[in-house]
Design a protein that fits this description.
The protein is an alpha+beta fold. Among the domains are: about 210 residues, 3-Layer(bba) Sandwich (FAD/NAD(P)-binding domain), CATH 3.50.50; about 30 residues; about 100 residues, Alpha-Beta Plaits (2-Layer Sandwich). The protein is about 30% helix and about 20% strand. The protein is built from 16 helices and 27 strands. A 7-stranded mixed β-sheet has the order 8-7-18-19-20-17-21. The protein has a 6-stranded mixed β-sheet with strand order 10-4-3-16-23-22. A hairpin with a 5-residue loop joins β13 and β14. α1 runs parallel beside α9 and α9 runs antiparallel to α10. The structure holds iron/sulfur cluster. Iron/sulfur cluster binds next to α16. The site of iron/sulfur cluster has 13 residues, from α16.
Length: about 550
Amino acid sequence: MSTAPGRSLNAPDVERDELEVDLLLVGAGPANLACAIHARRLLIERGKEDATVLVIDKAEEIGHHTLSGAVMNPRGISELFEDWRERGFPVESEVTDDALVVLRGNGKHTRLGGIFTPPQLKNHGNLIVSLNRVVRWLAAQAEELGVEVYPGFAASEVLMDGERVTGVQTRDSGLAADGSRKANFEPGMDVRAPLTVFGEGPRGHLAKGLIRRLGLDEGRNPQTFGTGIKELWEVPAERGRELVGTVLHTAGHPLGTDGYGGGWIYGLDEERLSLGFVVGLDHHDAALDPHGLFVRFKQHPFVARLLEGGKVLRYGAKTVPEGGLFAMPRLSGDGFCLVGDTAGFLNASTLKGVHLAIKSGMLAAEALVDALVTGDSSAGATARYDELFEASWAHEELSRVRNWRQAFDSGLVAGMLDAGIQMVTGGRGLVERRPGHADHTTMRPVSESRMTAPAFDDGACMDKLTDVYHSGAVHEEDQPSHLLILDPALCVERCTAEYGNPCRHFCPAAVYEWPEEDAEGVRISASNCVHCKTCDIADPYENIEWVVPEGGGGPKYVDM
Ligand code: SF4
């Protein structure tokens, strides 16, 4: 028995309890919860109601680590529950208006609404939701069907027998920062199952090890990510009322034509706005600072006016997998499947993934229940999930935008031209398959950097530490750092001169600090980490590895 590559902070040589279940799902996002719900229903239908379905999640409570914009296409939830409305599915508002707003650096803007809204940003018929409330609702539905849902259990390692996944080991608690065992030390347990589903969100740390070990990405484009920064705002009711059901996406300022990304403003209800900015991590600037761009976005007069007299309620950050169909790894193997963001189920052109996540979970459930009923959980059996995906509307949708994100590699203008051609060639564009790139390979030397920090204030434009307070992020302080610098000397000897230590810029939670007077290297405030995974993706030397901290640590997102 072995574990997949990837580092773990668990203590070696410890006797561990074992738990056996039939179907184990790692992560309580929409994909895994849909998978658990659908699997449980199919198991009951097929007389297998005794089969145990267990969902574990590293957050202290379900939803605490879930963050999205979010505008949701109802197609996925309608397939999972025909009567989702009657069941009380949480909708903040139905979309009543949509537009693209082009922000200019001189403070002006142009609103492209009505017939001028770009087709991929038309949202009538979609729903504005809080994904955090959605997963809490899904978890309650799952529990009603007999699924066991355990928050606070962080999966630390993949258990393997050769190339076969046999479960996961949960994270030890009660280890001190130096690795010694404290009085409250509790070893993690081995949770074993014939079938394990990884739905850990973008850049899942277990899936990352598994993809590498089993070569699941062979022949695929490297996955490419954006980092999204979000705040939830309370605004005066007279302005809030005007914006209920409104979906605004922005382009232009502060990125201009330099990089891929933009902002969003969604009217949730009469008093609350969801506000955010997402930027591709393939941006060339070594000082790329997603939080700084978000602040500049809020400082544009068009956005600033909407926030006047309001106050921030919550803050959070998360990465999104933007690479599309060609960047998706093989979805299954001996004893396991990958679903949702972990597998890259996201339509980057429409900025939507929740419906695809739900669909991926449902498709996986169909293959996995067959496997459980026949007692065959081999790669041959789980491959049915890949086949079901290829025959599904989810594949068709992703196929229509298969070259979307890569088209922007040559800049915004070339990307928009190609995207236009893609729309009339069924997703092909100028070539059948565009190659991708790993984000960490695109950074240019610090000598070419142009980005500077924005001005902060005590009002709408807070610095990172003030924002982190609004994320509720907290970890047990006396534990080994879950942010591993693989070669600390590299940071000082090369990175400072070549890239100017970009970790101090790209982390949206001010985890990495480089005090000028400290020649020793980086200071890591791991307790601030909001688990966005930007550092694991964007470090130009792949010198930072995010591993899971003690269960329960991290942000505490509510209504995000
Ligand atoms: Fe995100 Fe890494 Fe910063 Fe944590 S340390 S908030 S994962 S960039």
